[in-house]
Design brief:
49% of the residues lie in helices and 15% in strands. A hairpin with a 2-residue loop joins strand 2 (114-123) and strand 3. The protein is globular and about 45 Å long. Helix 2 (13-47) crosses helix 4. It is α+β, with helices and mostly antiparallel strands. The protein has helices at residues 2-10, 13-47, 60-76, 84-97, and strands at 103-111, 114-123, 126-127, 139-140. The chain is built from four helices and four strands, in the order H-H-H-H-E-E-E-E.
């Protein structure tokens, strides 16, 4: 426990803030999915995207990588461990708050008699929270979920 606290304190301020937000948002997202369902949870999260905050000094790719890392770290430390949908909704929302446009993707597959679903986040067509292109084994729904926030023109 002390080692984890030292590691947390060694993080820069921005990373600590993202980790704490993700740690709070993951269980809240889980509860909301149970009570409101997917559409209700996504609509609730979308309400709080009205004022994106850009983090000073970092490029969008650096912010994406840091946010993804902090969401994954927070997910490993929540109990019960967050599902791919909870983790993806959290990442999607945190990036949207930073003004980074992403798409939440949900796909399905049938493996023998077993039906499986999976969620991930994409930015400019690249999956963000996916090790080893795991999402390629799933057929994503054609009706894409809202890209957030709208990309500036």
């Amino acid at each position: 426990m002390w080692e984890e606290l030292r590691r947390f304190n060694a993080l820069e301020r921005t990373a600590r803030g993202l980790f704490l937000r993700a740690s709070l948002l993951l269980p809240l997202t889980s509860l909301s999915l149970r009570w409101r369902g997917f559409r209700g949870t996504q609509a609730l999260l979308q309400k709080f995207l009205s004022s994106p905050r850009n983090l000073p000094g970092d490029s969008p790719q650096e912010r994406i990588a840091l946010t993804e890392r902090m969401v994954r770290a927070a997910s490993r430390r929540t109990w019960p461990r967050a599902t791919c949908l909870e983790e993806s909704l959290t990442l999607w929302w945190l990036l949207g708050r930073q003004g980074i446009g992403t798409e939440l993707k949900v796909g399905v597959r049938k493996e023998g008699e077993k039906f499986e679903a999976h969620a991930w986040v994409e930015h400019n067509g690249a999956a963000l929270n996916e090790p080893a292109a795991h999402h390629l084994h799933y057929a994503a729904f054609d009706a894409a979920f809202a890209a957030l926030p709208p990309e500036p023109r």
